[in-house]
Write a structure and sequence with these properties.
Helix 1 packs parallel to helix 9 (about 325-340) and helix 3 (about 55-75) packs across helix 9. The mean pLDDT is about 95. The strands form 5 sheets. This protein has a 6-stranded mixed β-sheet with strand order 9-2-1-13-21-20, with helices on one face. Strands 14, 16, 17, 18 and 19 form a 5-stranded antiparallel β-sheet that branches. A 4-stranded mixed β-sheet has the order 6-7-5-15. About 30% of the residues lie in helices and about 25% in strands. It is built from 9 helices and 21 strands. With about 350 residues, the protein is an alpha+beta fold. Bound molecules: flavin-adenine dinucleotide. Flavin-adenine dinucleotide binds near residues 38, 151, 196, 197 and 330. Flavin-adenine dinucleotide binds near residues 6, 41, 204 and 326.
Length: about 350
């Protein structure tokens, strides 16, 4: 079966990989837009600490648990470098009562989700031992299963593995046609088309309500400091910190609803990122601000992804709407969409993610 995948962020790359592993003849098309969310994403994979307790959490938790399996699949396909690592995560606060509540919630979840690992309480000194740049008054709830991934490297790994399995990559802007897609002068015919065009999905499918939400995220360097094993830090806000090998610390991010595709680092965005980062981790004051990345999260109206076939074009499937959680949710969601495209059974009820749930049909 010939399948065209439009978009090669994590959603498209992971779908293409799963399709190719299942023997499909896959063509991936990517426009190379500025502001690809996967290229800017922080890379936190730690759903058990989140406040939502709905389908979004269930998909995120199942996908986080699936990551080691994905890493093994990539290795099987000759790609040893996924970048995914379990390094632990900490919810930090100076408010003990708040941490009590977090600890209860996360402990309950960890009992049902072995991938979350062990949940423990850390006093401020213990928290700073793990993340030395932290403010001295912040205690923590630590979750040992917390992970991180470098979206750029994972995307590359998924595409390399898909190509190893026979996928072809085409560069250009795709438009849907009645029997496939058009890219420049080339008409591509296919049995199925998967639209994984992130925040740009509306340009292909105006009825699918996904909007760009800009995120600005700072990358810092702490020369001479080994940050490779520092855990993810999540204060009681939408901001966070995480570290990567190479003395790199990442702090983010703005959530700018209504931004459109305005690909810029703004003064207010930069200030917001710096204010939050330095309040939580004053130890970053002397760090080098290396770059600020900008990405457009594909935001859906209810915060749940859009997964599955369109009612009036069953040959067109959608894999998007991952908002702020796509690096966590998309690997498993992509597997579901690949199975749907090939007519295989899916091990989950995807009704809550129906792409046309907002049309009232
Ligand atoms: C600052 C920031 C921090 C984040 N942090 C996290 C995090 O810590 N944890 C987490 O789980 N998630 C995080 N996310 C969310 C996550 O990055 C996104 O949900 C996810 O990357 C979305 O992936 P996607 O493939 O749907 O879209 P994208 O990565 O945006 O990819 C869409 C692709 O489609 C292509 N495209 C668009 N239109 C066309 C067309 N017509 N033809 C061909 N190609 C086309 C684009 O060029 C692009 O490559 C973060 C996002 C941002 C911006």
């Amino acid at each position: 079966m010939r399948v065209i995948v439009i978009g090669s962020g994590i959603a498209g790359a992971a779908t293409a990989h799963q399709l190719a592993r299942r023997g499909a003849d896959v063509v991936v098309v990517d426009a190379g837009h500025a502001g690809v969310a996967t290229e800017a994403g922080a890379g936190i994979v730690c759903p058990w600490t989140g406040r939502r307790d709905d389908e979004e959490y269930r998909l995120a938790a199942a996908s986080a648990a699936y990551y080691p399996d994905l890493v093994a699949q990539l290795a099987e396909d000759g790609v040893g470098e996924s970048s995914f690592e379990v390094i632990g995560g900490m919810v930090v606060s100076a408010d003990d009562a708040l941490l009590d509540g977090v600890q209860r919630r996360v402990t309950g979840r960890a009992e049902a989700e072995p991938a979350a690992g062990a949940v423990s309480r850390l006093d401020p000194a213990q928290a700073r031992e793990l993340f030395p740049a932290l403010a001295p008054d912040l205690g923590a709830v630590h979750v040992s299963g917390g992970g991180r991934v470098d979206g750029r490297r994972l995307r590359r790994a998924l595409l390399d593995a898909a190509v190893t399995r026979g996928a072809r990559i085409v560069h250009g802007v795709a438009r849907l046609t009645p029997r496939g897609a058009r890219v420049g002068d080339e008409d591509l015919a296919a049995d199925r088309i998967v639209v994984a065009a992130g925040a740009w999905t509306g340009e292909l499918l105006p009825a699918v309500p996904v909007a760009p939400q800009r995120g600005q995220i700072g990358h810092f360097e702490l020369p001479g400091t080994d940050t490779a094993r520092w855990p993810v830090v999540m204060p009681a806000s939408s901001h966070y910190l995480l570290a990567f090998p190479g003395s790199r610390v990442v702090a983010g991010a703005t959530r700018e609803t209504g931004s459109g595709f305005d690909y810029r680092v703004t003064a207010a965005g930069q200030r917001e990122v710096l204010d939050h980062a330095l309040a939580v981790a004053p130890g970053l004051a002397e760090a080098t601000l290396v770059e600020t990345r900008v990405g457009f999260r594909p935001a859906s109206p209810d915060g749940l992804p859009l997964l599955g076939a369109l009612d009036d074009r069953p040959d067109v499937l959608v894999a998007t709407g991952f908002g702020p959680g796509g690096l966590t949710q998309a690997p498993l969601a992509a597997r579901f969409v690949a199975c749907l495209a090939l007519g295989e059974e899916v091990s989950a009820d995807l009704t809550p993610y129906r792409p046309e749930r907002f049309t009232g049909r």
